Amino acid sequence: MGKSEVDSMRSARLDIRPDNRKAWKFYIGEANNNNANNESRGKQKVQQVVNGEYPAVLPPNMELFSNQVAGHMQDGINLGMVKSRNRVYKPITKETCGQREIGFYEQLKNSRDPILLEVKQHVPKYYGTEMLTVDGKQVKYIVLDDVTKDFKEPCVMDIKIGRRTYDPLASYEKMIKEDQKYHETKRDLGFCIPGFQVFKITNGRVCRYGKDYGKNLNKETVTDAFKIFLNANTGLNRTLVMQLLTSLWRIQNWARKQRQLRLYSSSLLLVYDARRLRQNQNKQQLIQPPQEETVPRSRPTLKRVNSLNRPMSIAMRDNSGPSRNTFSGLLTKDGPILRGPTSPTRIKQFSPLPERKSGPPSLKRMHSFQNNYDKDLQSMKADYVDILDQLVNTRTNQMWATVKIIDFAHVFPAENCDQDTNFLEGVENLVKIFESFLIETDPSFNENNTEMNGCMGGMR
Ligand SMILES: Nc1ncnc2c1ncn2[C@@H]1O[C@H](COP(=O)(O)OP(=O)(O)OP(=O)(O)O)[C@@H](O)[C@H]1O
Ligand SMILES: O=P(O)(O)O[C@@H]1[C@@H](O)[C@H](OP(=O)(O)O)[C@@H](OP(=O)(O)O)[C@@H](O)[C@H]1OP(=O)(O)O
Predict the structure, then answer these.
(1) Is residue 194 in contact with ligand 2, taking CB distance under 6 Å?
(2) pTM of the full predicted structure?
(3) 272 phi and psi, to 5 degrees?
(4) What is the per-residue pLDDT across 398-445, written as a single tens digit (0 to 9) for each?
(5) Is 236 in the pocket of ligand 2 (CB under 6 A)?
(6) 368's torsion region: left (phi>0), alpha (psi -120 to 50) or beta?
(7) How many angstroms separate the CA atoms of 195 and 137, rounded?
(8) Is 195 close to ligand 2, i.e. is its CB under 6 Å away?
(9) What is the per-residue pLDDT across 304-328, written as a single tens digit (0 to 9) for each?
(10) What is the rounded CA–CA span in Å between residue 236 and residue 440?
């Protein structure tokens, strides 16, 4: 395709759908995620449907990154993230920010400082930079590991951390602009949610929530956003919450210790695989004993297995409430330590539910107490999908949810060797919300327990 053809195609799209420029940003709802219609023509290919709903002329083997949920998108003005195989490419469009971010990744790559070595575990692997020709222009890209690469149905949430999201070199206008947006969640919780996507476990469709949704959230409605993201309409999944919380605790622990960096406007990227969540939910329903049917509907719906340890329930029993027994930030080989009123409480080591061993689904088990054959058939199909997945995926026993720190365009050295409270407070509040979810997934949790409300109200 010649340049003039590409140009005319791009302007045709501009003419026909002028509002599309910010389409993704305002989009809330379901979308078909398999709509990338790539045409390889000669050396470059045109991608018709992209992260910001605009085409781009990309080098061969490159495509626009469809799992990008926030940040600058391909939208006719900005360049979006692109991907090739298991790597994502972040364009450097603002020279100073780009150099700062590259500088940070290079520092991590070469450093032996224990704090930097520790944070490296929570940052996507860095593969240097590359020049690519995009839309006929040479652009420098930062090359990173795609943290969604192992997931069949990647659910991704970008949580921008900090009450303050501008750096020390920001202009007065930039400060005002930043302070005005996502105002309530930033003010009350020290973080905001610029975007997320979730694959619904009920129908496999992807739903995307953009900036406008995030800008209208407040400290109460933010819980709804998390529950949508966590596919909690059929009940919060304890294994999922535990995996995310384990990562969050480790990041919190690091943020409490570190005294050398200021992370302005960095994000925590929460990712999990809805495919694995569905399998986990199905499995829990299958092993659920029949007497569960008598449990009143008003109770939390998540079913549990006996082997699953219950850290927060131990905490509640020993210390009578989450507001008085937050995780201390200390992880030992035996599990996290809680901070209690008198002495620290060690929580038993916990791990995600063991995955189902391969083998054909058992027909014997398939007669539910309700004799609901349709439901049984559905579970059986899900089992086969599960087994097929295991046959093609050797990573099946790995974690299927994690949290990474991303976006270091506004990282600065700390001037006075104290904590980065702006970053830390956001992380701590996020941790508290996920700890309250963990309590909710405890089968002994009583809905009327006022302690939990106390926990939510205790945000800094
Ligand atoms: N390593 C990664 N793996 C998978 N997805 C990623 C990765 N890094 C970034 N993303 C995706 O790209 C989005 C934007 O990333 P990032 O915040 O680094 O870009 P940005 O354009 O600098 O953002 P901003 O406009 O907030 O400054 C993230 O929300 C996430 O969806
Ligand atoms: O983080 P930066 O580099 O300052 O870029 C911001 C950022 O992308 C911001 O998006 P959000 O994630 O805070 O929602 C953009 O704001 P909008 O919400 O108005 O789109 C800013 O415009 C970006 O700043 P800049 O205009 O300097 O590129």
Answers:
(1) yes
(2) 0.74
(3) -155, 165
(4) 799 999 999 999 999 998 889 999 999 999 999 999 999 999 998 776
(5) no
(6) beta
(7) 28
(8) no
(9) 333 233 333 323 323 333 333 455 4
(10) 8
72 lines ligand 2 (CB under 6 A): yes
* pLDDT (0 to 100) of residue 15: 25
* pLDDT in the model for residue 288: 58
Mutate to test the pocket of ligand 2, among 51, 68, 72 (most ligand atoms within 8 A of CB): 72
Distance (Å) from CA 54 to ligand 2 centroid: 19
Mutate to test the pocket of ligand 2, among 211, 212, 412 (most ligand atoms within 8 A of CB): 211
- Tokens at residue 423, please? 């970053």
Residue 412 pairs in a beta bridge with 262
Structure confidence by residue, pLDDT tens digits, 185-239 = 999 999 999 999 999 999 999 999 999 999 999 999 999 999 999 999 989 999 9
Q: Which ligand is nearest to the CA of 147?
A: 1
| Domains in the chain, CATH or no CATH each | 3-145 (no CATH), 154-355+397-457 (3.30.470.160)
Beta strands in 339-400 (DSSP E): 345-346
The radius of gyration of the chain's CA atoms, rounded to the nearest angstrom, is: 23
Indicate whether residue 97 lines ligand 2 (CB < 6 A): yes
Tell whether ipTM is more than 0.90: yes
Torsion of CA 407, 92, 118, 265, to 10 degrees: -20
Query: Dihedrals φ, ψ of 298, to 5°?
Result: -70, -15
Q: CA-to-CA distance for 127 and 84, rounded, in angstroms?
A: 13
Tell me, in angstroms, the distance from the centre of ligand 2 to residue 205's CA.
Answer: 28
CB contact at 8 A, 196 and 202:
no
192 SS3 class: strand
Tokens 């996020």 belong to 430
Q: Which residue puts its alpha carbon closest to atom 26 of ligand 1?
A: 71
Question: Residue 174 Cα, ligand 2 centroid: separation in angstroms?
Answer: 9
Distance of CA 356 to the CA centre of its chain: 25
Is residue 318 within 8 A of residue 325, CB to CB? The reply is yes
Q: Give φ, ψ of 256 to 5 degrees.
A: -70, -30
